[in-house]
Specification:
Length: 222
């Protein structure tokens, strides 16, 4: 990335999980000024919001928490309906899927970026591990970038540093950013609300821990 970007401001879509925390460190490495936005929408665990707030304050970053609780009115699903189990539907899309969630999040992130004067929006979406989520695909992000620019007559740039990485490569990136142990210990990815390495049993833990083991093995430190 060119040096000139270092003088610009970035807004990171931030959940306090592994991916968005990696994006936060990526943003800190590349941009002069970084702010975070977290969407509150009836997550299974209030702990998620607390984790995000703690990381933001430890990193000394301005943190915007936006209320998106209307999402739970739109779709009963395993992320917001606490009585449901998390599993894959027959069509291979996990039942944690909230239709158009990322479309909505990026729209609000764009509106906030406009207000705070941030040209860059960074999001941890990824095609590699979550191909079941259509609004995490690269083609959607490009379309969204164009729509944001047209809607506000701006030239925002959406960055997706994790788009083509698998979990092993995401851990490698966090290591390059000198943040592997911070991310391993301070983030929450587990669907059962267990910090750090998590419950070890839910799909999010499987993905995260398998990638971490693969990375540590490849590095020869396991
Ligand atoms: Zn878990």
């Amino acid at each position: 990335m060119s040096e000139t970007l270092k003088n610009e401001k970035a807004l990171v879509v931030f959940s306090g999980g592994q991916d968005s925390t990696t994006c936060m460190f990526y943003a800190k490495a590349h941009f002069k000024e970084v702010e975070l936005v977290t969407f509150q929408y009836g997550q299974r665990h209030d702990l998620e919001i607390e984790v995000a707030k703690n990381i933001a304050s430890e990193q000394g970053l301005k943190h915007h928490v936006l209320d998106m609780s209307l999402l739970s009115q739109l779709s009963p699903n395993a992320l917001t309906d606490h009585s449901m189990q998390i599993e894959d539907n027959e069509d291979g899309v996990p039942n944690t899927f909230v239709p158009a969630r990322n479309l909505l999040f990026l729209s609000f992130a764009g509106a906030l970026a406009y207000q705070i004067g941030a040209k860059h929006i960074i999001t941890g979406v990824c095609e590699t591990d979550f191909s079941g989520y259509p609004d995490c695909r690269d083609s959607f992000i490009k379309s969204m970038n164009l729509s944001l620019n047209l809607s506000m007559d701006k030239d925002f740039v959406i960055h997706t540093p994790l788009m083509w990485l698998n979990k092993k490569e995401t851990w490698a990136l966090s290591d390059e950013l000198d943040a592997l142990s911070y991310i391993r210990n301070k983030t929450l990815t587990c669907y059962n609300g267990v910090m750090s390495d998590g419950c070890g049993e839910c799909p999010a833990c499987h993905l995260r821990n398998q990638g971490l083991q693969q990375y540590l093995e490849s590095k020869g430190s396991l």
